[in-house]
Amino acid sequence: MDWSIQVSGAADIRSDLAALNATSFDCGSKLAPVVELTCRLIDEYFGPVHLSRCVYGNEFCEHLIPSPAHLKDVLSVAAEREMDVTLLTPYVSDAGIDLLKPLFELLSLNGANEVVFNDWGVLNLLRREFPLLTPVQGRLMNKSLRDPRVTGVYAESDAPAPALVSLRRSNLDCASYTGFLSNLGVDSVELDNLPQGVDLSFAENGVKANAYIPFGFISTSRICMAAGIHYDKIDKFQPGAPCHHECQTHLLEYAYTNTPFSNRDQKFYLKGNSYFYVHTEAMLRGLFEQSRSGLIDRIVFQPRLPMNWERQ
Amino acid sequence: MKVLAPINAYDEMEMLAESGAEEFYCGIVPREWLDRYTGAVWLNRRSPKGGSLETLSELKQLVDGAHQLKIPVFLTLNAPYYTAEQMTWVMELARRLDGEAGVDALIVTDINLLMQLSQAKLNAELHVSSVAATLNTEAIRFLLQFGPSRIILPRSLTIPEIGRIVAATRDEVEIEVFMLNDGCAFEEGFCSTTHHHSVGAFCTNLSDMDTEFERSGDRELTRRQNSRLRRNLTDYREWIWYVNGNGCGSTANGLPYGPCGLCAIHDFERIGVASLKIVGREASPFKKLASVRMVRAIVDQVRSGAEKLVTIERAKSLRGEREHCESGYMCYYKVEA
Q1: In chain A, which residue's Cα lies nearest the Cα of B112?
Q2: What's the pLDDT score for residue B34?
Q3: Of all residues in chain B, what percent carry a pLDDT higher than 70?
Q4: Could you tell me if A279 and A211 are in contact, meaning their C-beta atoms sit under 8 angstroms apart?
Q5: Cβ–Cβ under 8 Å, residues A245 and A66
């Protein structure tokens, strides 16, 4: 199994990543406990891990697509550190497609790099114009329910087996779909570690599974709360509206005070246009146990919520 | 440009058709599905309780009746995904919907189902659901390999973005857009939450939760910064209230509040959009009726050649309470007048 780390820029790669020292990540006091827990459990299960790859870019917002100059820096420093690079891409409008092309050109010049797609349009572009790049299906293309308000409850309750089986799977369960992906040159898929558990049996058919820890995405939108800060009230909350990257300045924590279940005060996090849940110790241990069965090809460690962006 | 109306009973058909509906869409959830998967796993994007028909015979009656009125009926099979076990069952259902009920199109999200339906060569056409999050022209080019006759664009595209897409794909596929009723705070195709009645929609649920801001970089928020963020959060929660149909409200005359694209109809006609979707299969017959009448009133005005500003003025006057229109939060689309 490979280990990968999500980086915010070249400076991250220059720092002492390999130590996986939780205190060195500036994830903020609210998220520090889960990052520390994750580092401790990684050490417990796997000992010192070798980070062979860095993941760069953004899956959730086309306004957070990095500049070619920043990508060039990342490629350069990663090469010095003998790390491979995966570029994350978000769902995009036509304008977003235009922003991605120069990045793909740069990656193509640099050799065979991975690109994670979260939009069929991005895959179409990759296949038509950038055949040297290796497409990887992103976690937003995996449509498993991830609603942390209820899915943990489903897993603990007496939900009928067919319903629970269905909630732990996705269309990756279908050989027709994994065959389709394979024909498109997509051999790896990315996943969130689900509160209700993930059924990885599809990996037995040769599909490689990459799992993200310790944050999973709940929902995302082209309408960004944070971007509204600098607009007049009447003009706020427009799809795809230009922003000043206000999302970089703060985090919003929600406490699930109005639950009908026993998960009162469960925390959800909004960063920019996307909501995230954090993994519990049980979820992390469950995933690490699964990795021992050989069904996980790569774990991607996120030391921060995956929304960081470097100013030009 | 057609007016597409939701329907979930034969009894609604005549009044909706007489009021101006030119296409229908509906869902079906056979009892067998509910027995096996319970309410936790939905066959389509509406709760099995109240949003869909239950039997094929009900559906056939509806389709036959609509065809007599020369109105096509489209059926949703638009869950975000189906597992292998479900796929076998759904494909069998699709064949019966096509052969026995005679629906005109199947509305599909899961690309695996789209692929299999494409290979099955049914009579029914294929429409790609908005839940597939088709946000750009490249994505449509990708989907065209499965032969869809229509792509339903998500609510979150702007008029210029829709215009660019329609211009690029005009001769290859029809484009449908949202026109009235339910909103979605998130990108529907990338929202992994449930609207199950036990918890409700995540977006509205969030408005009642306790919140705390944290400044990036291990620094404390100043009182001024916190106040500014709080004010923005309050505005956002007000916007969510509009997204949720102004708290599921209506005017004194029973006209529905909630996300609305009436002012954009003139632009959509110019752009070449094929169909205007009214949301709400689960809504009351009266809400459906009122919705169809509102959309048709503006469509008729546009068809008669009215100026854009005239149609916008008419659209804003329909409900008789302009303050909601003036808020800017009830619109699907920002229209340049």
Answers
A1: A177
A2: 87
A3: 100
A4: no
A5: no
Which domains, ranges and CATH numbers included, belong to chain B?
Answer: 2-193+239-327 (3.20.20.380)
pLDDT band at B101 (very low <50, low <70, confident <90, very high): very high
Residue B210: closest CA among B230, B187, B193 = B230
Q: Please state, in angstroms and rounded to a whole number, the distance separating the CA atoms of residues A140 and A122.
A: 13
The pTM of this model reads: 0.96
Confidence tier at A311 by pLDDT (50, 70, 90): confident
Extract the tokens encoding B292: 């169809």
| Cβ-based neighbours of B15, under 8 Å, separated by 6 or more | B285, B289
* DSSP character string of B86-146: HHHHHHHHHHHIIIII--SEEEE--HHHHHHHHHHT-SSEEEE-GGG---SHHHHHHHGGG
Residues B129 and B113: their CA atoms lie apart, in Å, by 12
Position A213: which residue type? I
Other Cβ atoms less than 10 A from the Cβ of A258: the count is 15
3-state secondary structure of A267: strand
**pLDDT tens-digit readout, A195-215:** 999 999 999 889 999 999 999
Cα–Cα distance measured from residue A89 to residue A306, given in angstroms and rounded to the nearest whole number: 12
Given this model, what pLDDT does residue A37 score? Answer: 96
Chain A within 8 Å of B206 (Cβ-Cβ)?
yes
For residue B76, the distance in angstroms to the closest alpha carbon of chain A comes to: 17
Residue A68 identity (one-letter amino acid): P
Q: Which of residues 103-162 of B touch A (CB under 8 A)?
A: 110-112, 115-116, 133-143, 155-158, 161
Please report the ipTM that was assigned to this predicted complex: 0.96
Query: Taken in order B125, B194, A279, B190, is the CA torsion positive or negative?
Result: positive
A258 touches chain B (CB under 8 A): yes
Contact A115, A86 (CB under 8 A): yes
What is residue B292's predicted lDDT score, i.e. its pLDDT?
Answer: 98
Residue B218: per-residue pLDDT? 74
Contact by Cβ (8 Å): A100, A122? yes
Distances (CA, A) of A140 to A53, A133, A169, B204, B278: 21, 20, 14, 22, 27
Q: Say if residue B279's pLDDT is above 70.
A: yes
**Cβ-Cβ contacts under 8 Å, A149 against chain B:** 193, 199, 202, 205
Per-residue burial over A25-37, b = 16 or more CB atoms within 10 Å of its CB, e = otherwise: bebbebbeebbbb
- Cα of B20 to nearest chain A Cα, Å: 30
The region, left, alpha or beta by phi > 0 then psi within -120 to 50, assigned to residue A30 is alpha
Reference A113, options A136, A81, A142; nearest CA is: A136
Exposed, middle or buried by CB within 10 Å (0-12, 13-18, 19+), for A92? buried
Per-residue pLDDT of A102-154, as tens digits, reads 999 999 998 879 999 999 999 999 999 999 999 999 999 999 999 999 988 87
A156-167 pLDDT tens trace: 777 778 888 888
Dist CA A135 CA A127 (whole Å): 8
pLDDT band with cut points at 50, 70 and 90 for residue B38 = confident
The fold for domain A2-220+278-301 equals TIM Barrel (3.20.20)
- Which residue, A90, A20, A73, A29, is CA-closest to A51? A20
CA distance linking residue B116 with residue A175, whole number of Å = 12
Q: Which residue has the tokens 């920019």?
A: A272
Residue of B36, B87, B138 to mutate, interface with A, max A Cβ within 10 Å: B138
Kindly tell me if the per-residue pLDDT of B315 is higher than 80. yes
